[in-house]
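Please review the protein record below. Tell me whether the encoded fold seems credible here:
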Amino acid sequence: MLKGVRCRLKYRLFALALGNFAIGTEAFMIAGVLPELAENLRVSLSTAGQLVTVFSLAYAIGSPVVAMFTGRMERRKLLVGSLLLFALANFVCGLSNHYGMLLLGRVIAAIGAGLFVPAASTTAADLVAPAHRGRALAIVLGGQTVALCLGVPLGTWIAYALHWRTTFWMVGVLALIAAVLIRFRLPTVASTVPVTLRERFSSIKRPVIWTSLLSTVCWATGAFAVYTYIADVFGQLGATPRIISFALLIWGVASLIGSTLGGVASDRFGSARTIAVALTVLLAALTAFSLLISGQPSQPALWIGCAAMAVWGVSAWSFGPAQQHRLIGLSGKASGIVVPLNPSATYLGSALGAAIGGLFVAYGNVEGLGYFGGFCELSALLWFAASRTRERKLQAAEAVT
């Protein structure tokens, strides 16, 4: 009987992970199909690139706003509805014959994704005992890291073998399948305890929360400043397209390992320790790229760069489940309001990283990307330390009372 319960739980977590897989594939694969998309819609590559910026900003801004109006919804209905909206948006993108329609589809997709991802995390945490919360979050968030390993390469290949519109149809179908599984596999999950508008804002304004969220913004800014232009980084090291693809594959596999490791480490050693180690290692990995570029292109430098990609993938994606785990613990009854802000902070950092990294590339300073990424991770560590200090003070105050 216990075995049957565990199987049902795994199926439920798998359904949530599949939804994240569809969202992760759509969010990351568009970078690989931008040249073909731009040519087909007769717009410049830079104009096509705004589809990435618009998605990230719509997610970052829209997610917490919409979450405030859907906080009372039963969780299963919210999950299914958000995936249906996301699927519809991808079908709109697949039918788009001009840039404006595609832009609209990306905005709608971002809203659907912004509703689903945080709701999936809080639901996964509620389905398991507190001692297994980190592992459950790692499974659900792992859907996005699997998307990096499989979804993005597959979507890019389909775009060039068939058509870029086909990739959006593929993601739309995946989202529909996930919605059906969630509808019939998940039990009814009550919404978080309703809170007033004043309580919502007071939760966000708590120093322990906003300093933690700033840590997420800095983490994502540094990571995506380098990732967005990783082809240029490896080009400076003398890499061929095949080696660049191989490096990205290493990064994707390492990301999957890191997501799992982050959940397990959070359960065993605590989310705070996991976050501190992950950010420190990531700082070293990103800085290594600038140090490598400053030397002469060589075969050893390429292999060291690939090794740095592996370390980067593990450390960067260990941060995700650990940070979600910590925010759920810090926010308590307000987790339904606070947790949606973490993915928003991630996408805000992604938009900032891509924009600022673009300035480095535009002015011929690719070497500076690694240093900038390392600086951002150092900033993330400092904001985390500030949040951790506040957390300890609150714990000490509660112990006295």
Q: What stands out?
A: DSSP finds 15 helices and no strands in the chain. The first helix runs from residue 2 to 41. The two ends are 43 Å apart (CA to CA). The CA atoms of residues 225 and 356 lie 7 Å apart.
